[in-house]
Design a protein that fits this description.
heterodimer; A: alpha/beta; Elongation Factor Tu (Ef-tu), domain 3; Rossmann fold; 2 domains; 30% helix; globular; B: 5-stranded parallel sheet; 18 helices; binds flavin-adenine dinucleotide; binds iron/sulfur cluster; binds FE2/S2 (inorganic) cluster
Amino acid sequence: MARILAKSELAPKIHEIVVEAPRIARKALPGHFVVVMPDEHGERIPLTIADFDRHQGTITLVMMVVGASTLKLSRLEVGQSFYALIGPLGKPSEVEAAGTVVMVAGGVGAAPVYPIARAFYELGDRVITIQGARSRELLFWTDRLAAVSHRHIITTDDGSFGRKGLVTDPLREVLEEDRDKAIGCVYAIGPAVMMKFCARTTEPFGVKTVVSLNSIMVDGTGMCGGCRVDVGGQTLFTCVDGPEFDGHRVDWDLLISRQNIYHEQEACSLEKYLQQFQGEHAT
Amino acid sequence: MKEADQPQGKKKKKVIKHRVAMPEQDPEVRIRNFDEVPLGYTPEQAQAEARRCLQCKKPKCIDGCPVAVDIPGFVDLVAEGKFVEAARRIKQTNCLPAICGRVCPQETQCEAQCILGKKHDPAAIGRLERFAADYEREQGLVELPPKAPPTGKKVAVVGSGPAGLTVAGDLILLGHDVTIFEAFHKPGGVLMYGIPEFRLPKRIVEEEVDYLRRLGVRIELNQVIGKSITLDELFDEEGFDAVFIGVGAGLPRFMNVPGENLGGVYSASEYLTRANLMKAFAFPDYDTPIVCGRHVCVIGGGNVAMDAARTARRLGAEEVTILYRRSRQEMPARAEEIHHAEEEGIVFRLLCSPIEYTGDERGMVRQVRCQQMELGPPDESGRRRPVPIPGATFTLDTDLVIVAIGSGANPLLTQQAPGIKLNRWGYIAADQRGRTSRRAVWAGGDIVTGSATVILAMGAGKTAARDIHHYLSNPDAPWVEEPSAQEVASSET
Ligand SMILES: Cc1cc2nc3c(=O)[nH]c(=O)nc-3n(C[C@H](O)[C@H](O)[C@H](O)COP(=O)(O)OP(=O)(O)OC[C@H]3O[C@@H](n4cnc5c(N)ncnc54)[C@H](O)[C@@H]3O)c2cc1C
Ligand SMILES: Cc1cc2nc3c(=O)[nH]c(=O)nc-3n(C[C@H](O)[C@H](O)[C@H](O)COP(=O)(O)OP(=O)(O)OC[C@H]3O[C@@H](n4cnc5c(N)ncnc54)[C@H](O)[C@@H]3O)c2cc1C
Ligand code: SF4
Ligand code: SF4
Ligand code: FES
């Protein structure tokens, strides 16, 4: 269980991992996440289920290496297993016919967006996907997203591929073009700042905007309260009440400051593993 | 003297007033490590203490123990130097003596009833229990008891806290096939993630779990029942004949005061889970970080608050203050824990409650404003209710706050389990035998009673195991629920 069956680097620092997890695959739905621990000394970190195959009993995770835990995960080889894999957790996305949906994917957010976009596509909705990345080399799964979208817009910050600029530009245009008010909802998944600005962009249009929050978690089952967020003035737990919430009601500043609680320790931890891994390479 | 007080035998025993002291780590030393504080009796000390027991004909102490350990029986064996026999005698009714000897609130249970305690120190029952269990384990003399022939019945136990471990241990000996499902990556429940190492070494919990494994109990970790597998699936797809739910009361409570979501404000569950289960105290050897405050405030006055405060101290805090809204008499923590906390320099500020936290530009907590209270008339619980003194507030500097004001029932499992009745606080309604409103499903421990004690959870496990065995032997009998223990209690008054 939790054995790695396949692994590839989709873009620099972005890894796709296929894991054997028949029980999780059987239950997984778009929007669900898992909690993983790379090894016994590891941290418990959440990752979205980016794809699942009930038949093969596998799930696919896509993660960006940002710190010690993701670095450790990226270094596990095919045939090795995660120390712990728990899920599926969280509430699944509410996929109901919405007419037209706009899926905004920022960076590694392309992975969690994919199963949701596919679900709307299979339901017969019109799917407009806006995929953004810092530059061309960081884009991945463009073909997969294109296959489940009626329109697929790509932006890069530096203009090395698609439109130059941020995802909020085409998002605003799409909303403005939408004369017949067909857009039922917007999904925005990516870094907190991007989700915040997407929510700001859609707010004047009054279009329902769902975001998937990436709070710091421990258990992922509602037992610690570490993942608490403020939504519409109410304190909720991302792991059990979310991770998807109404983007217009999220207290973004609180989310972002809570993401940075362990800034110094995280840097120290990463430093330690980088040194250790470099040492291994040298020998 | 009444008859019950009369010591056995003809000759009246000379009463030794004071109990044998148990050596402890010095406070100055122990605040810098996570090792156990009380060091345990030597065999000589244990025998000396055991000899203080009067061997009452009608021992009151047994009435004080929720699982009715044969106290005079095992104490006498200790006095005779038959330590292993003593451990086995305890285990006839209490399968986790090394744990109970350490964490039971003896001063309100067995030792509260001990006749010696009327005039002198009561017999140190907990310490002797710990001694006998440690001796048996450390000498490698723990034996696997014989198992009944396989019955072919499958039992699922959800949760591996003391309730679940007890159910598993009892049913495996009766020949059933038992599997424990645990949400965390380590078994043991609060024993593992809540109670700190310096009070209950994790090695002891691990060895108890290992013992169950050797008896043949299967343990499936990382399985969140209600998510990974639902209750229905345990029956329909995994083929279990009976399910015991012992998921504890793990939902953290907050006070909903402004600023409570600032960084550096933790629930006690998160703080202790990071420190104990994830071993954040060994960061960066272990990857999980924790905020190590210099000026720490802990809100609450129970065991959990003491554990959090003493943990913060060990993580390097210069000053740890416990803020409790009632007075010292009302503090629910065990006397020993309060005493240990005081020895470790923890400051108690009584009759006050936080009303607001303020933070810095990074969103980290920096100050707590508190409301001063006085005691008003008694409330439903019979304790005098704290009422705010108008205008009396004060502010403390702080960089780490731990909210330890209690916990509730986590609805993760029950939401996915229609047909299981809950009481009005969200806990599972179970009858005296542990039966829930759903056929073949039992529940016990904190998920039924709300936060209680290890020994009560074990007691509930024992009762349920007996009834599960009974049910599995006559599976066609109708599923009738009897009144709950609470209902019986309230109809008697
Ligand atoms: C529901 C959910 C789904 C997610 N899905 C994905 C995904 O599919 N792919 C992906 O690349 N990332 C995902 N993330 C983010 C991912 O969990 C973090 O990038 C990861 O935990 C970073 O750990 P680290 O030790 O490598 O980095 P660190 O150096 O520890 O931290 C870098 C940043 O990651 C965040 N982080 C740190 N620890 C945790 C933690 N225990 N839990 C959550 N966030 C943490 C913090 O904001 C921190 O500033 C998801 C987060 C959530 C809450
Ligand atoms: C910090 C602290 C200190 C304490 N100190 C003392 C003390 O000194 N003396 C004393 O007697 N008592 C003490 N207690 C109370 C005592 O620990 C509890 O009453 C006792 O552990 C309850 O046992 P339980 O088996 O009901 O549940 P728990 O010990 O809570 O175990 C429940 C288990 O179920 C698991 N679980 C939850 N949901 C699911 C799910 N959906 N699927 C699978 N598994 C699940 C949890 O992860 C957990 O491992 C303390 C409690 C705390 C928190
Ligand atoms: S189990 Fe607890 S209450 Fe019972 S005798 Fe042992 S220490 Fe006392
Ligand atoms: S422990 Fe106390 S009450 Fe119990 S038998 Fe000994 S003296 Fe009597
Ligand atoms: S991660 Fe612990 S409550 Fe959500």
